[in-house]
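Troubleshooting: if your tokenizer reports a length mismatch, compare against these two reference records.
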Amino acid sequence: MTDRYLFRGKRIDGGEWVIGHLAMWECGRSEIWGHEKNNELYRFIIDPATIGQCTGLYDKNDSLIFEGDIILLSGKREVEGIVIWKAGQAGFLIAVAGKPIYAVVMARMSGEIVGNIHDNPELLPEGAK
């Protein structure tokens, strides 16, 4: 699978995160589809509120970055932000205090995923809650 076309979401039958291809039906049901290593097809119904698209980029620890991840950027000072899709700029950005400031590509060199907005609301930066 090409990373930038992946989505993730939480299964409604247990809350486990799954990664794969997104299918959204007219009835309102959302599913993630993919293939196991043994090439068997899987298909899970997911909570639509947890859907996040993959940016196609990795953090400094080689973890894929998804929309909704909380990123800690280290440098002259540490800054925490949330990965968002900014349609007006046709790209993923890291929002700090609710304002899109950093390009996600910054996370490759100095960023680390520390959680996500669904599992770790306590990590949300000030101004983003």
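Reference record two:
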Amino acid sequence: MKRKNILVLLIDSLRADVSFGKQKRTITPFIDTLRNLGVTYTNAFSVATSTTPAVSSIMTGLYPPVHGVAGLMGYKLNKSCHTLAEILRENGYHTYAFVTGPLLTETSLNRGFMEYHYRRNDSVYKSFGEQLSSRLKTMQEPWFCFVHFWEVHTPRQVPFVLNHSDGLTIYEKAVSCLDMWLKENLLNKIDFEDTIVILTADHGEKDSPLNDKLIVSKNFRRLDRFFHIKRRFINFRKKYFINNKKGFLWFNHGYHLYEPLIKIPLIIVAKDKLIKASTRGDIVSQVDIFPTILELVDIKYPFDINGTSIVNEKMQEERGMYLEASNLEANREGSFWLKGVRTPGWKYIVSAYNKHADGELFNLKEDPAESKNLVHKELAIKEKMGKLLKKIEHEMEDLKRDFSSENKMSEEEVKTMEKVLKELGYL
């Protein structure tokens, strides 16, 4: 039987609430079309709030402590991990990737891809858009194609004015513009009869209209080149506001595990496999994407992972999902590295290294904005969530024995990553 093509569209920094829901103000005809054709998982969450660990989890079905990519700097996939591209290629798929940002080949995320196209200083509004549209027509079937979009990430790209976009933030306009491009340039090239389509994100975002305006300002960039304003601001924020990450000085992603940073869209279109125009509200994780894709194309895998297929099975009511925030390097100033666990009703966040730091505990059903830290009040819940986090960590330790080969970057690879991360504004 002919296997279906697989198209994974990952929009960097795309929050769930700008993709669907009551608070949505963005203009998204492409996303709306996918929702009408497939299943929307309204409670999907990233495992990490930075790109490389999150994408590594999508590609392996494993949490970051198992696959080895703990941050943006110095880490690459453990050699013994099995990637989605490798398994699909072994089963007759032709594998293609179009990526940018920190997803260089130095991370080993290119493993299993026949073609791994990394682009620099390009976007769908430039030559990459034409390249992607053209390549989708000529890929050899059955194919697996992973596309990583950067247009919503800072500095956000708003190349044209949309009707009815007055009052939107720059972030919302960037989302709307990219969606319009996808509708006009990609939608008519997808054969939904023969293609499984997945739209998701690596992590969410806390947008700051003031920061977005400054970043795209040529005058600000000139001043920053000489006076290192961004670097000074980051150091100031770390020194004086490290224990108050809810204020206006904290934005973008990577620094914490609050809901806007981890709640992401997940839409799956699979004709004859999933119910059209349906919604599921049970909590799911990025690690579930790997086994879900393989089940949809009837491919077995003889090893254990952290993820669970979400094709038919409803997730356990008290399922706990592992989360972490390390951004650049998990070992650099380790006391700032956070880990946590989320259930349908609660979230518990602790420092990964500093055992003396106060954690955070939120009742998500009564306090979805996470404004009341109950870590000193709900001691029984804190203990229960702490045990759940330890249980997940023990499970990860067991998996590490199967995926034990570390794969550190060489000095030359680290230098390459540093150069790119500086260009992207991370350093």
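Descriptive notes for reference record two:
- Residues 5-207+256-296 form a domain with the Alkaline Phosphatase, subunit A fold (CATH 3.40.720.10).
- The two ends are 50 Å apart (CA to CA).
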